Amino acid sequence: MAQWWRSAAGHLRTVAANRSSTSVFRRRHYHTIQAIPRESSGSRVSTRDRMQGRIPAVKHLLTVEKKQIKAVLSSLDAPFFCSTRFPLQIRAGSGSSHLLESGTVLPIKIHRDEESGQILNLVFVWAEDGMKLKVDVPVVFEGEDACPGLQKGGFLNKIRPSLKYLCPSEHIPSKIVVDVSNLDIEDRIFMRDMEVHPSLKLLSKNENMPICKIVPTSLGNKEPVGNDQ
């Protein structure tokens, strides 16, 4: 079997040499994704894997168990799945106790069937400490109940559903919290206002773009999401 995972520029951990660091990671993250290698790719192979209750990983010759991924998604709000790192263990086969390799991954995309919504494929990237990754971090709005502008009948225009950062993998935020509890009519919060880890770099051509704005309901119009990335 071609051990493709050993070619990832040395970023994957070997089991014996890094057992202690893996245990520390587990204490921070409940879910450890279990995967098994597959010999080949292609639509027929992927269809067979799905019939066996497994989800192919795009770009890597791996499959993961559908039941586990569904359990992870149900325990996390869906937008946070693709901004959360997970330990990954590669086993010799389904149900095997033989651990071939372990590492840390970041899911970056879920491919679903347009009609059924069933998961077809997952896209992972390696996300070991020290690696820098571009991540779309979901924006979560809080404080709407106390927002003066909304109490006056205004409307919260959520202009940016996410912000893209270049992040050291160990500092990837699962979400960006935007507090709107002090906003009045016509008030805005801008990208530049976000307080994040100093190692994060905002990937935007204009950090003065608003994330949200309280608009009078009578206006009835919303600002479009800017495509400035």
From TrEMBL:
GO-annotated biological processes: translation
Cellular component, GO annotation: cytosolic large ribosomal subunit
Signal peptide start and end residues: none
MF term (GO), any: 5S rRNA binding
Source organism of the structure: Cajanus cajan (Pigeon pea)
Sequence ranges assigned to domain Large ribosomal subunit protein bL25 beta in this UniProt record: 132-217
Keyword Acyltransferase included in the entry's annotation: no
Alphabetized Pfam families for the sequence: Ribosomal_TL5_C
Listed PANTHER family: RIBOSOMAL PROTEIN L25/GLN-TRNA SYNTHETASE, ANTI-CODON-BINDING DOMAIN-CONTAINING PROTEIN, RIBOSOMAL PROTEIN L25_GLN-TRNA SYNTHETASE, ANTI-CODON-BINDING DOMAIN-CONTAINING PROTEIN
Protein's UniProt name: 50S ribosomal protein L25
Keywords, in A-Z order: Ribonucleoprotein, Ribosomal protein
Top-level lineage group: Eukaryota
Gene3D superfamilies registered for this protein in UniProt: Ribosomal protein L25, beta domain (2.170.120.20)
